[in-house]
Amino acid sequence: MESKVEAVAKELHDNGLHSETQEGKSATQEIQLVHRDDKINEEDKKKISLVRALVEKQDPSSKEVDDFAIRRFLRARDLDVDKASAMLLKYLKWRRSFVPNGSILPSEIPNEIAHNKMFVQGVDKLGRPIAVVFGGRHTQNKLGGPDEFKRFVVLALDKLCSRTSPGREKFVVIGDLNGFGYSNCDARAYLGALSILQDCYPERLGKLIVVHVPYLFWTLWKILYPFIDNNTKKKIAFVENKRLTETLLQDIDESQLPEIYGGKMPLVPIHEA
Fold it and tell me: Which CDD domains match (predicted)?
């Protein structure tokens, strides 16, 4: 099994992705980048002002959007003011329509909660909140349909974002595929989640660490891969089973690491966080 994972790691590298067997930024370098993000530089301020002016003309509600949020949209569109403005306008329209009350309540997603598939607890060494998603517990929601799944995604992302702070706005997700099988290959749902993450929560994902990867997953991966933007691809890492705890401890202190990976932190269901 490990040889297959290693073979896929080479394929990932060739496609611009990586496994955690490769070297990345040092912890010191990453911490320095996070600290620099605490303040908005003069160049960013100019572009933020331009986006704000363009968007407010079409949507006065954008006055409530802070500068850090606008900076995220700019970064998601490579600092292109027009593209970032269009993205922000689309998001504001979507938010009013899909989350009219400002937030999703657990009572709106009973079937998704029943899967018991997403948890949150602790922070990594950069202070980013950690979520754990169990892919082997997800199945197609036949009762609530795709809209309930999307509401679940929004609730989860809002919960994670509420644990961040201005200038330190990213979170980390551990995608655990232990037990993942054919019944979990819900491509439509995963594409819906990906669209929400990339289009409505830009520059929020700090890292996606995928663990316990079964060979079956790579069939689904080939479907999802073309829809993942380049910025997101750079944040995805696959971990070999034999190096799991060792690798996670590079990013997460033992006191903050979930118990199921050899740490000391109990997990809390996302809707109770």
Answer: SEC14
